[in-house]
Amino acid sequence: MEWTWELAHRFANDLAIDRNLHIVLPDNPIRKAVIAGARFAADRAGMLIVGSVLPDLSRVSVCLPLGHNDGSLVLVSEYAMSSPIIFTKTMAHEGTHDHQSDRNGHLRNAWDYGISSEARAQREAEAYAADLAVEFTLTGQVRDVHSVLQALGGPTYHMSQGSLALAGGLVKGAVESIQNNVCPPVSTAKWSVEWIHKYAPECVRGELVTR
Ligand SMILES: [Zn+2]
């Protein structure tokens, strides 16, 4: 059976409930207002990174923490809507960022992410691990480390060479784990893989053990 839009939206809705995410799809009329507000807030906080990512929301999805216990706003890019699998991978990626916010404290997380290239490397590598685990489960394929590093080395993330090397090591670990049919130790990756096994077992193309 094929991974349909219906399944992808069910997955996203369940993840949203589990994580208290507010998903804003590209055709949502409030999106423009949210982006303008977020850009203003990012500028005021001097968060150049977040501010510079925001104009490119056709290509890049973003997870914006709303504050303690209020969950996160996920602004889904137009690119993420290009197929049900890409949408699902994106939700797992952004769901990981929300989990990081809960773990580190929302403000602390946003601050670290905005100012530290190393923190960005770690958080993005973890989010990509969830993304890759979903991709493998649904397609049986795992991307090579270089294609992930190409995305991380692009203008979106403003990473130093050292941070990129750190992210490279972490992504390589995730890829090797997947090649050995073990889900990377990222809670959203496990949640996502388990959801697919539970609700759409006939869509599983690649097996990953989650414990
Ligand atoms: Zn990310």
List the topology elements.
Elements: H1 5-19, E1 21-24, H2 31-44, H3 48-53, E2 62-65, E3 72-75, H4 84-104, H5 106-115, H6 117-139, H7 145-153, H8 161-179, H9 187-199
Bound molecules: zinc ion.
Could you explain how this protein is built, in words?
With 211 residues, this protein is mainly alpha-helical. The chain has one domain (5-200). It is 62% helix and 6% strand. It contains nine helices and three strands, in the order αβααββαααααα. The protein has helices spanning 5-19, 31-44, 48-53, 84-104, 106-115, 117-139, 145-153, 161-179, 187-199; strands spanning 21-24, 62-65, 72-75. β2 and β3 (72-75) form a beta hairpin. The chain is globular, with a radius of gyration of 16 Å. The model has no long low-confidence stretch (mean pLDDT 86). Zinc ion (ZN) binds at residues 93, 97, 124, 127. Zinc ion binds next to α4 and α6.
> Ranges with pLDDT <50 over ≥5 residues?
none
Question: What spatial order of strands do you see in the largest sheet?
Answer: 1-3-2
Radius of gyration: 16 Å
Number of structural domains: 1
Overall pLDDT score: 86
Record keyword descriptors for this entry.
globular, 211 residues, binds zinc ion, 3 strands, mainly alpha, 9 helices, three-stranded mixed β-sheet
In short:
The chain is 62% helix and 6% strand.
